From TrEMBL:
Keyword flag Hydrolase: yes
The protein, known as: Adenosine deaminase
Keywords: Hydrolase, Metal-binding, Nucleotide metabolism, Zinc
EC annotation from Swiss-Prot or TrEMBL: 3.5.4.4
Ligand binding (substrate): 25, 27, 181
Highest taxon of the lineage: Bacteria
Catalytic residues identified in the record: 211 (proton donor)
SUPFAM superfamilies: Metallo-dependent hydrolases
The UniProt record lists the keyword Ubl conjugation: no
GO terms for biological process, alphabetical: adenosine catabolic process; hypoxanthine salvage; inosine biosynthetic process; nucleotide metabolic process; purine ribonucleoside monophosphate biosynthetic process
InterPro entries the record matches: A_deaminase, A_deaminase_dom, Ado/ade_deaminase, Metal_Hydrolase
């Protein structure tokens, strides 16, 4: 019984920490109840209307076999994210979800081009998500930024549209452009023009790299102007890449549980994030997809403490790293950093 008490106290302590989340996908973080309700309202067929059974179609099992199996879980969330009402509600509810574990600021990302099946324009898609975030920010006293994802498998012309779309909403809540998708088969350099255009518009850059491809993918992302790297798990394969990450203070947006599910690592105990942290490379802990991986930031913190030996003080340092690397105007970022430092007593 004494052991259980210690764990409970640790979890309470982790839950209470002021948090910052930088790598979070909207379509992977939809409440199952919401999917069921929206599908019923919109006449979308689901494999079951039993909520517990539906979760099996939305969450990966702990023994998830591959990235392919992981990606199958996005089918039904995407199906209900094709209307203004659905997009707004899902963004609003995400604010509520993160606020419950004391997240003070989060950046959520999604690919607007995946939400036009029923006739919404790209502008309408982004407006709906921003409306939901803005309402949620007011209601739950949380701050948020929106990141638009270009997709690796799509033509450069489409991804240039996403860069232009992000620029149009730069003063309304969109903070950055990302590149996501099939990293192994579609190299980042194919989309160099996308990032040139985004940077010219004053947008920040984060790029998925080093998850399904090696350290060279991370090196190319840095070369193209990435200020943060999504995952970066395989950066250790090249000492020069590690040195560059440290020198440039480029933060790795690490998602431990998701990395295990997608087989970026075989087991959490083999995850290199502690090695990176100990080398002085900036890392932050994130959820990636809260519903698909059935996780929270508190879960992720507890996981890396139990499996990798992180201490509470080291968790606090990673939270500060995240706060220092948010894609906010300098004055707003500095204010967030000071608030986090004061609360964490750093």
């Amino acid at each position: 019984m004494e052991g259980v008490k210690i764990v409970e106290n640790l979890r309470d302590q982790l839950m209470a920490l002021p948090k910052v989340e930088l790598h979070l996908h909207l379509d992977g973080s939809v409440n199952p109840e919401t999917i069921l309700e929206l599908a019923q309202k919109e006449g979308i067929d689901l494999p079951t209307e039993n909520l517990d059974e539906l979760r099996r179609y939305l969450e990966v099992p702990e023994d998830c076999k591959s990235l392919g199996e992981y990606l199958q879980k996005f089918e039904f969330p995407l199906a209900v994210m094709q209307t203004k009402e659905g997009l707004k509600r899902i963004a609003y509810e995400l604010c509520e979800r993160v606020a419950k574990e004391n997240v003070r600021y989060f950046e959520v990302r999604f690919a607007p081009q995946l939400h036009t099946r029923k006739g919404l324009t790209l502008n309408e898609v982004v407006e709906a998500v921003l409306d939901g975030l803005n309402e949620g920010k007011r209601e739950f006293n949380v701050k948020a930024g929106l990141i638009l994802c270009a997709m690796r498998h799509q033509p450069v012309e489409i991804n240039l549209e996403i860069a232009d779309l992000a620029a149009r909403f730069k003063e309304k809540g969109v903070v950055a452009v990302d590149l996501a998708g099939d990293e192994a088969n579609f190299p980042v350099e194919d989309h160099a023009e996308v990032f040139e255009r985004a940077k010219a518009s004053g947008l920040h850059i984060t790029i998925h790299a080093g998850e399904a491809a090696g350290a060279q993918s991370v090196a190319k992302a840095i070369e193209l102007g990435a200020e943060r790297i999504g995952h970066g798990v395989r950066s250790f394969e090249d000492p020069e890449v590690l040195a560059k990450l440290k020198e440039k203070k480029i933060l790795l947006e690490v998602c431990p549980k998701s990395n295990r599910h997608t087989k970026a690592v075989r087991n959490i105990s083999e995850h290199p994030v502690k090695e990176y942290f100990d080398k002085g490379i900036r890392v932050s802990i994130n959820t990636d997809n809260r519903t698909v991986s059935n996780t929270s930031l508190t879960d992720e913190y507890q996981l890396v403490m139990e499996e990798l030996g992180f201490t509470v003080d080291e968790i606090k340092k990673m939270i500060l790293y995240a706060a220092e690397t948010v894609f906010l105007p300098e004055s707003e970022r500095d204010q967030l950093v000071q608030e986090i430092k004061a609360e964490l007593d750093l």
